Amino acid sequence: MSEDYRSVYRFSVEQPVEFWAAAASELAWSKPWDEVLDASHAPMYRWFTGGKINTCYNALDRHVEAGNGERTALIYDSPVTDTKARYSYAQLLDEVSRFAGALAERGVSRGSRVIIYMPMIPQTVVAMLACARIGAIHSVVFGGFASDELATRIRDCKPAMILSASCGIEPGRVVEYKPLLDAAIDGAGLGEIPCIVFQRPQCEAPLIDGRDEDWAAVADAAQPVPCVALDATDPLYILYTSGTTGEPKGVVRDNGGHAVALNWSMRNIYGIKPADVFWAASDVGWVVGHSYIVYAPLIYGCTTVLYEGKPVGTPDAGAFWRVVSEYGVNCLFTAPTAFRAIRRDDPAGELLHGYDLSSLRTLFLAGERCDPGTLEWAQSNLGIPVIDHWWQTETGWPVAANCVGIELLPVKPGSPTCAVPGYRVAVLDESGEPVAAGETGNIVIGLPLPPGTLPTLWQKDDRYRSSYLERYPGYYLTGDSGYCDSDGYLWIMSRIDDIINVAGHRLSTGQMEEVLASFPNVAECAVIGVEDSLKGQLPLGLVVMQSGADVDEEEIRAGLVRRVREVIGPVAAFKLVTIVDRLPKTRSGKVLRGTMKKIADGQQFKIPATIDDPASLAEIERALAGLGYPGDN
Ligand code: COA
Ligand code: AMP
Question: How many CA atoms lie within 13 A of 1 on its CB side?
Fold first, then answer.
């Protein structure tokens, strides 16, 4: 490992105040900070206290004021609607400042919450930046969630306004948002909440008189407003993510630390220059979309691509190559699942040959474990460095990566390389002692976390402490387990909780169990994440019905699948479920989920010494075989 990465890393952890002050000086502040790192309420740390900043100003106004108004800020490419559009920085600023004016006119102000339930269209970016402009706290809800999930988020953050669209578009299916939105507002039980709805031509939604307004009319009549100077510590957004129960965690992001960290990451992690074209092929509903479709590329002065399509089927596995060549994309960021899908449809990479991909310098992958085969396939077909990097909704930007802007370290397929400057990553055993190189343990990050990471959970400081800080005092618990090898490379192996990763989407099996358990006549159930060659993992449910219940198994299975789709949403991808007579348990009644998962994945397993009834495992083996597990999944 050369001195470059090492020296930057050492500086960042030995002198974090100097390191982050230098990074912060690259942004525009209305008032400089009093303290870079405020430890007065440790372990609740704050960055850049006393500083005043506006994220929207840094993402738009300052580029226009610097004479770059004609540079393309956003390219919208939507194969599902056959639409393409470009927005310059000046145009985007105009739309955002006017829409911010419309929100302000309707009483939305600093600290108000605004839910954004919208698909991958430019108006969603306008909505996010308009909130940032006036200090309203946005909370984007992914379109693949059902109305119950939306209702939970409404109840938790109590929005002053909801911004939505008439529909999202999935290949072959128009997803009507309005019925889901109306049901969610009813279900939340907070009374009517004003909505502004963007009507898409694919499906016009009926508006409710006195509550809903038409986006186009609102935007046309709006007057622009300037940016509000916010405290660096003011929340920019809340993004809900799966916790270990049905109650999602409202991850809070501040303004100052977030802008500083993202701006730093563009050059140092992604090796990007201002005016480069950056494409994160994700969704604005996820953290990757927040950070690397919207905020980081714009703060850094790049052109960002907003792609409303899939890696395959819109129209084929050459879709990504078309976008890269058409817009001269310099850096592509997506989830390994997308590449597994492309490889499945085009194993020899033949579709690559029709496109000029010479602009592409690097491919970054994150969101789930990247299997070496997928990484090597991408590397050999693209002929560029393929960088696996590891992060979480909570951190907002990468914890471990090969920082190509500092120094490209040798790639070890299967490892996201080393800790990013600013993060003191450690691997601890159950008693809190660091484990030796190569030994698996719980991956933690020494406090304080660097800027840009979550300062807390929305109005739940206690949950923040108990979920992340109490297990190992002085450390943040990532929830991932793995090891660090003798070269300092990290290997992320699995979660220590019930979170699974399906097509790069983070889901809680505990939440699915809650849904199954509430189904009529279900006595008990377990949901495990089984390996899948396309999506990484898939949820699989095992259900025990109450004795004496009149059971039509096929009907029940269909009902359970439907129920999870209705309550959590299609994104849960819950399609595998089987009915069993009993679940294997320890003598103390703990369900042996880990053993069932090993059986489903075809791994060696030992019958636990504490098992209550060994015969129950044989039954599980038969039930899983009925679903094709273990198999070539
Ligand atoms: N709105 C409504 N429904 C959505 C949705 C959205 N925004 N996104 C996904 N869904 C639906 C899908 O249509 C699908 O529904 P179906 O069960 O009726 O087919 C379901 O949710 C599951 O979606 P997904 O798991 O994504 O599977 P898929 O078969 O539609 O697509 C891939 C498979 C690999 C093409 C797709 O998962 C993909 O592009 N993955 C890239 C990963 C990614 O972007 N991750 C984000 C984090 S970086
Ligand atoms: P999310 O909060 O949706 O971004 O999901 C975060 C979780 O995804 C992490 O805690 C990991 O379990 C997993 N994850 C993300 N990136 C990687 C990666 N590069 N390698 C392994 N797991 C990853």
Answer: 17
